[in-house]
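Quick start: what a row looks like.
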Amino acid sequence: MADTLSVMETVGSERAVLWGFDATGPLSILFAATYPERTAALLVYASYARGSWAPDYPWSWTDEQWDEYLLKSERRWGQPDYVEEFTKWLAPTARLDQTDLEIWTSFFRATSPGTQIALETMERETDIRHVLPAVHVPALVLHRTGDQVYSVEEGRYLAEHIAGARFVELDGVDHLPWYGDTDAILGEIDRFFGSVLDEEAEFDRLLATVMFTDIVGSTQRASHMGDRAWRQLLATHHHRLRGLLARYRGREVDTAGDGFLATFDGPARAIRCAVTIAQAMRDIGLEVRVGLHTGEIELEGDDVRGIAVHIGARVASLAGPGEVLVSSTVKDLVAGSGLTFADAGEHELKGVPERWHLYRVRE
């Protein structure tokens, strides 16, 4: 698993979709259970949970079957007739000509019999049944009903023990996915990825209170004070505002000139932060306008998007010097908090449907 993490770090991948086929299925499952934060989804095709027979896992080979198979493999590995026999077991429908068999033979001979036996022994001793309940990422398990290498029951077992996993039985007898009806496999994978992306998009949407601030008359003030003095005052403004955001657990999203965009997970805390900001800026000789709105936002990296952000910006633009203006949504959500408001009337917000009722926060 360390190798997988190393590759992901090298290519800059934060989260990956894991494809587990045959003996790599258990490895992919183990990675998904251990590193869910690095796993976007898990796709398992024609794999297994345990490599050898057990009373509660009757589909794998017994010790006698394993011993016979390993002995035959050690004696005949890489021989053309064995290669042909082996590949027909993996893909009964494949029509292999002489060139295909030569390619497969070269492939087999690239691995020594000793290495192959070591790999098969590892598979024989694999048992990840206890790991399956620890997988909590989107998962799809695919298995062909006539697979002769691993029974379709093994695929069903995986899906039944991974929470929320989707199991799809596919027609066919080929163990290798690139033989037989590949379109069926690709179609299921495409549908699965689509559902994962839709789900991810939902995860990236959340309810938040959006706050916009802006210094009133900043251009005229900068012209009157001069560049150096204005920069010093602006630095003080930024320092104080960021300190208050930290105090009220707001998240700074963006800074454009003398304005800030921040989000909060609670409207009451956002209002109290806004009021304190207005007072703190007044103490250094600045008047700010602040607008607040609560709604569903979309996360896009460190940025935020959505109609709620536009509404918050429009509300702020209507606030007067030293004023904190909120939408009716914010006012309704803080009922009983002790905060008081003055009616600011109904307004049309540019680019936003319908008229909106706004309220001034009373300090």
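That is the whole record. Residues 182-203 form the longest helix (22 residues). The two ends are 57 Å apart (CA to CA).
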